[in-house]
Prior knowledge:
Elements lengths: L1 H13 L4 E5 L2 E4 H7 L4 H77 L3 H4 L1
Antiparallel strand pairs: 1-2
Amino acid sequence: MDEYLTEQHETASNDQSPRTQVKEGIYQDSNQLKSSRERNRSDSKQSSSWKRRQIVRKKLESTKSIERSIRSELEHEKSERIERLRARRLKTEEKQRIEAMRLRMSKKKLMRFNKRLGRSKKISG
């Protein structure tokens, strides 16, 4: 019978009761221990939502950077196209100007030649 009582006493001392023994002989309320512990549940929720937001931000930033690079490439191609058009127009204008000068020069030569021959407007007219 003594063994049975000692076993019950030992199991009772091992069970967790609302009061826990911090130091030998000093008891504290379990609520005080709970309040001293750090909370993990709300931190984990915040961190997971924060991580989700960070992932979304990274995706958005990567898409924005890709869009920026595509836009800059398109602008570069457009400016090159415009520059090529300007150069082509300048070349054609220069060719036309030179051709007009050639025609004028040939007319002047013809006029001089006709003058020498006596075929000017005044003489023939």
